[in-house]
Amino acid sequence: MANQIKLSESEQMYLVTIRKINEDCHEELVSIPDIAAGLGVQPVSVNQMVKKLAEMGLVKYTPYKGVELTLEGRKIAIRILRHRRLWEVFLVRELKMDVEAADAMSCHLEHITSVDVGDRLSALLDHPRVNIHGNSIPQIEGSTQNPFEGLPLPKLQAGEYGTLISIEVERSSAEFLSSEGFRPGMQITVLAVGSSGEILVETPQGRIQLAEELASHIRVEKSAP
């Protein structure tokens, strides 16, 4: 169904904006004011578009609580984000464009990129895991690539290296990790593992000790020093 729905660029941008707020805040429900701020529009415009998208089965709105993507809405948003982030990597790495210009161009290209072209672009770039901002490049349904989800951080032993792939934690923990400089794409080293499972990690910003429970929600890819 997601591939059959024809959406305007504006409609697609609303879905992408909701998804990006989900990623940043780790919350499914997104407020109307947050969507308005993300798009630089008035809340009344958001209300009108949310109603339209809800009628199309792409979002669900709960009054006084917020908006959430349906399964079909999420599929579309993830597909567009994947293509945007692949184009960002291509424009900066291969065409040597500055980041701001690449961001602007990728926002146009994302809307006209098919799944097949996205896969070809990913292959050309050697399947990057994150974009130029350190955001994860998602896998999508219908892609010919094999998904890569990484390993839970506690799977790394003392002395092993890794690249952060994703951080799926509640908002308070996400804010703590963000304050410590944690983000996808970062290179880390496991310095020690305690008797209770706590992990001492070194990052480019310094050292941090993580409880096993928190670390289990951080996924990494093993890497060479």
Structural Rg: 19 Å
Strand order of the largest sheet: 3-8-4-5-6-7
Question: What is the general shape?
Answer: globular
Helical amount: 40-55%
| Beta content | 15-25%
Uncertain runs: none
Give, in order, the helices and strands: HHHEEHHHEEHEEEHE
- Please report the total strand number as a whole number: 8
Q: How many alpha or pi helices? A: 8
Derived structural class: alpha+beta
Characterize the main sheet: 6 strands, antiparallel
State the distance separating the first and last CA atoms. 44 Å
Mean pLDDT: 86
What's the structural blueprint in terms of helices and strands?
Blueprint: H1 9-25, H2 32-39, H3 43-55, E1 59-62, E2 66-69, H4 71-94, H5 99-109, H6 115-124, E3 151-152, E4 161-167, H7 171-179, E5 187-193, E6 199-203, E7 206-210, H8 212-215, E8 218-223
Antiparallel strand pairs: 1-2, 3-8, 4-5, 4-8, 5-6, 6-7
Helix pairs in contact: 1-2, 1-4, 2-3, 4-5, 4-6
Provide tags for this entry.
alpha+beta; 225 residues
Word description of this protein:
With 225 residues, the protein is of the alpha+beta class. The protein is 43% helix and 18% strand. The protein is built from eight helices and eight strands, in the order αααββαααββαβββαβ. It has helices spanning 9-25, 32-39, 43-55, 71-94, 99-109, 115-124, 171-179, 212-215, and strands spanning 59-62, 66-69, 151-152, 161-167, 187-193, 199-203, 206-210, 218-223. The strands form two sheets. The protein has a six-stranded antiparallel sheet with strand order 3-8-4-5-6-7. Helix 1 (9-25) packs across helix 2, helix 4 crosses helix 5 and helix 4 (71-94) runs parallel beside helix 6. The longest helix is centred in the middle third of the chain and has 24 residues, at 71-94.
